[in-house]
Amino acid sequence: MNGVSGRMGYRQHLVRSILAIRDQGGIELPDGSKLTVRPLLVGRSEAKLAEIAAQHGIDDWTTDLDSALADSRWEIYADFLVTKARAAALRKAIAAGKAIYTEKPTAETVEEALELARLAAEAGVKTGVVHDKLYLPGLQKLKRLIDSGFFGRILSVRGEFGYWVFEGDWQVAQRPSWNYRAEDGGGIIVDMFPHWNYVLENLFGEVKSVYAHASIHIPERWDEKGERYDATAEDAAYGVFELEGGVVAQINSSWTTRVDRGELVEFHVDGTHGSAVVGLHKAKIQHRNATPKPVWNPDLEDSHDYDADWQQVPANDVFLNGFRQQWEEYLTSYALGTDYAFDLLAGARGVQLAQAGLESSRSGAKVALDPLSL
Fold this sequence. Notes:
Blueprint: H1 7-23, E1 27-28, E2 34-35, E3 40-42, H2 46-56, E4 60-62, H3 65-70, E5 76-79, H4 83-95, E6 99-102, H5 110-123, E7 127-129, H6 137-148, E8 154-162, H7 188-203, E9 207-215, E10 220-222, E11 228-230, E12 236-243, E13 248-254, E14 265-271, E15 274-278, E16 283-287, E17 311-312, H8 322-336, H9 344-363, E18 367-368
Parallel strand pairs: 3-4, 5-6, 6-7, 8-13
Antiparallel strand pairs: 1-2, 8-14, 9-12, 9-18, 10-11, 12-13, 14-15, 15-16, 16-17
């Protein structure tokens, strides 16, 4: 596990996923046997690794990635590094014959992301890319609605994601400063468009084109040391995505917006037979038989309670932490030798959408996405 001292690597992948699996005794496989996990922590700081290992009862850690990859005891390489460092490390792991499980984006360019997918295929190693948003309780409820035919024909998707990230001068920023420097791999398009790609393609249809506008709304910020720096990467992006089947998706992504919605991300889905609004956890629906008949009249105050026209969708299930659920699926697929859909080629499609979004913002034109293949 390379990069566990970072926020996501530590909290979501190590503590809430791998250690949770370890502490429950492993994953039960279809034949009744147990798949167990043993983590090796890899990073640059001996002090940080030693502290994490001692805190969680982990025996193995190293600052030498090459020796870890050369050791046959470790079967899977998991990568949670910053984007700029990821491709080089993945290339090493593939050359060493390790299975791969990695955060996204998998690379800085679609050419490099596709090269990694080809290298892995040629080496015959299983690969997995984090698709965590699909495992959110709200989106699992949405998937259930789609599979049941609730919407009829889906027409459109409107997404709102984001929150206010403090500039770092009078209040400490809650995101790392490299997120706002393009030269360090930052920017909300690179960060979020890979997420939107897999959400859209797995729930609604393959993305065929994108029109995006990126903005640097806050041009100066203050880093972790309190030093001022110029923000060179966009902190907001406004995208329109055309999907197969004629579905249109509009998603706003912003670190410069104050939240006035139920959750930090919400998707409003409209179909011929019904609509839904889903977030991280909650989901509400309105069927066409229960749809009110608004009449536009700005001269009179509208006293109708539109919120009351929506019905909450019950959980009807127990949802695991999304990162852990995907880890369990990947590890099970690894043990059984089955195909795994969320591979490096899927990751390359996310990079492709981010690259197309940046190109669209620079040119002001809609950009078509060609199908990717090995």
